[in-house]
Design a protein that fits this description.
Blueprint (H helix, E strand, L loop, with lengths): L2 H27 L8 H10 L2 H23 L5 H26 L7 H11 L7 H21 L6 E2 L4 E2 L5 H11 L4 H14 L7 H28 L5 H6 L9 H24 L1 H4 L2 H10 L2 H18 L12 H22 L7 H10 L1
Antiparallel strand pairs: 1-2
Helix pairs in contact: 1-3, 1-11, 1-13, 1-14, 1-15, 3-5, 3-8, 3-11, 4-5, 4-16, 5-8, 6-8, 9-11, 13-15, 14-15
Length: about 375
């Protein structure tokens, strides 16, 4: 598979993750979790926390591929390493500012966390595969230790899912590194896992098949272990029950492994579609999906400002005396994605990158 095909596979994976993210965020924003038909609630519930995790893994893969390409061209010397660190730092600062602005209207923003994943992740770019795996394990174990030694509930109002002290220095640091929506510990592990995956032979069908099978087995295993552990801990305190959860809050090892497994499956499927399903990959629909995947930064902001803004104007957000269901959220997500597709189809006739992607290039290089 050519580099172009591999990049298209990553774009398609980003598209899948974007659709999942919209479904989950609209469901949460509408207060529709667990309400509605069995099919809709089960489907959206299975996506919760997994779409965002896939995005972070893909970000790590992207950075890793950049470094790999330089290494193959014998460009990865001290000067290139300094350049990559500086470029990544500038982009991280851009994402941090954008994310903090977004946090003013959307508490569950992920962009300001993304900034830290890139900032710390770039220093792992030359680490060995064994070192990356060891670091991932350390982050997972470290979070468990933090959970049992620190107060995970500090700052949270769990009834409204708001973080009271976010805009204080102590609260911001605690949220960013420990008990926020996507804390650096342990979420940086997803980014490092992406760097690890970038070193595999992703262009080979056999590797793609193995990656998908590994992801499926790991996902089924961890979900099964979670159910067994929860059954054994019936009646135990919540802190012990949290150990066995595959829910994103708190992000315990079972959840983290499930997130990595899901990302492996999405990545393998997307790479296979791009490399082998030639007839499908040349269709207008497939190219449109890839173009959506190339604008996920712009579309992430759009789904909050425009998507949730429209839901609020229609009185459909949680707390507006609505009785929305997951089915309603799925319908709203479908309409938003359709509008998104129409916008991207028209926009890409004139421009290659999305508006915010272009802005980041201009400001941060």
């Amino acid at each position: 598979m050519t580099t172009s095909a591999r990049l298209e596979g990553l774009d398609f994976a980003r598209f899948i993750a974007f659709v999942g993210m919209v479904l989950v965020n609209f469901t949460v924003a509408m207060g529709a979790e667990g309400q509605g038909s069995f099919l809709a609630t089960t489907f959206v519930g299975a996506l919760e926390g997994r779409a965002a995790a896939t995005f972070v893994v893909l970000a790590g893969i992207g950075l890793g591929l950049t470094a790999n390409k330089a290494a193959k061209n014998q460009e990865f010397n001290h000067d290139f390493n300094d350049h990559l660190v500086w470029l990544t730092t500038k982009r991280a600062l851009f994402l941090l500012v954008l994310g903090l602005l977004n946090s003013l209207i959307f508490d569950a923003d992920i962009l300001h966390y993304y900034a830290l994943y890139f900032f710390f992740g770039v220093f792992f770019i030359r680490m060995s595969a064994r070192g990356l795996i060891s670091s991932i394990i350390a982050l997972l174990v470290g979070f468990v230790i933090m959970l049992f030694t620190l107060d995970y509930d500090v700052g949270w109002d769990w009834k409204t899912y708001t973080y009271k002290n976010f805009w204080t220095l102590e609260g911001f640091i605690c949220n960013l590194f420990f008990n926020g929506w996507h804390p650096v510990v342990p979420w940086l592990a997803f980014f490092l896992f992406g760097i690890f995956l970038s070193r595999l032979s992703l262009n080979q069908i056999q590797a793609q098949r193995q990656l998908f099978i590994f992801g499926l087995i790991a996902l089924l295993t961890v979900e099964g272990l979670s159910l067994m552990t929860l059954a054994l801990l019936t009646g135990a305190e919540q802190d012990l029950l949290d150990i066995a959860t595959t829910e994103p809050l708190p992000p315990m090892p079972y959840y983290m492994i499930a997130g990595m497994a899901s990302a492996c499956m999405v990545l393998a499927f997307s790479l296979w579609i791009s490399s082998k399903a030639a007839g499908l990959s040349k269709t207008v629909g497939f190219r449109l999906c890839n173009n959506i995947g190339r604008q996920t930064l712009t579309l992430y902001v759009a789904h909050i400002l425009l998507g949730m803004g429209t839901l609020e104007a229609l009185g459909l957000l949680d707390g507006q005396n609505t009785s929305g269901t997951t089915d309603d959220a799925v319908l709203a997500s479908g309409i938003f994605i359709l509008v998104t597709a129409l916008y991207v189809w028209a926009y890409t006739k004139f421009f290659t990158r999305g508006p915010i992607e272009n802005l980041m290039r201009i400001i941060a290089g």
